[in-house]
Design a protein that fits this description.
The protein is of the alpha+beta class and 234 residues long. Helix content is 49%, strand content 15%. The protein has a five-stranded antiparallel beta sheet with strand order 1-2-3-4-5, with helices on one face. The chain is globular, with a radius of gyration of 20 Å. The two termini are 36 Å apart.
Length: 234
């Protein structure tokens, strides 16, 4: 999947296209997507489809899959099966599938359970491909970051005005993974970034949560680059 994404010419697939193509394939989105992004989504689908329950569980655990991820996957699998948008009864059925997934070992999964995990992995891997595309196609302005107790701080001068940039822990913690990995710590930290300008900082913009401080700093640097180029404003 990553090799296929890396081999595409610049601009052939934009960040978000692979995730959109995945939702189109799941029957949750009716939209035209570039052929290259559909091919990437198809590659992800075929890769995941080759995995049995034990390998699906391992990959889901390693990607820190949450109940929300599994619920999305169960809903997508049900929608694809019934060729219709999920309704209230499908939402209840999806939650029942998630509850059973949490309680059962992979050897006791049925078709609905494996379909739900597969669909959730489709989107997780598609999101990863989109993140890699965004990072590879962007050339943000590097900032001189200073660490403090709350996170990181930096500043940039744009049009003679100082813009302060802060990366700190997000107010809302991310959902915990369903299956904890034995190596990394169970607790995860989400991050958010904010840019303010002028001495009073009356104009500001921020975004989050994102899963890592590195991703938050990269996103903030991309925003500063866009501000300096006049492509957006606070």
């Amino acid at each position: 999947m990553l090799h296929a994404a890396a081999s595409l010419p610049p601009g052939a697939v934009q960040p978000g296209d692979v995730s959109a193509a995945t939702e189109v394939r799941a029957g949750l989105l009716n939209a035209d997507v570039p052929p290259a992004s559909d091919a990437a989504a198809c590659c992800i689908q075929h890769t995941v489809d080759d995995l049995g329950p034990a390998d699906l569980w391992t990959l889901a655990r390693d990607t820190a899959m949450t109940r929300d991820d599994l619920a999305w996957g169960a809903g997508a699998a049900l929608a694809r099966e019934r060729l219709a948008q999920p309704g209230p009864l499908d939402e209840l059925a999806a939650q029942a599938i998630v509850d059973e997934l949490v309680e059962r070992t992979p050897c006791r999964w049925g078709r609905h359970h494996t379909d739900a995990v597969r669909a959730a992995l489709y989107r997780t891997l598609a999101d990863l491909a989109d993140v890699l595309l965004e990072v590879s196609e962007s050339t943000p302005t590097p900032l001189d970051w200073t660490a403090d107790d709350d996170g990181w701080r930096a500043s940039a001068v744009i049009g003679g005005v100082v813009h302060d940039v802060v990366v700190q822990k997000a107010e809302h913690a991310p959902s915990p993974p369903v299956w904890h990995h034995p190596s990394p710590p169970a607790a995860r930290t989400a991050w958010q970034w904010r840019i303010t300008n002028g001495p009073t900082g009356r104009a500001s913009h921020g975004c989050g949560p994102v899963p890592s401080a590195l991703a938050a700093r990269h996103a903030a640097e991309c925003a500063i680059t866009a501000l300096a180029a006049g492509r957006c404003s606070l």
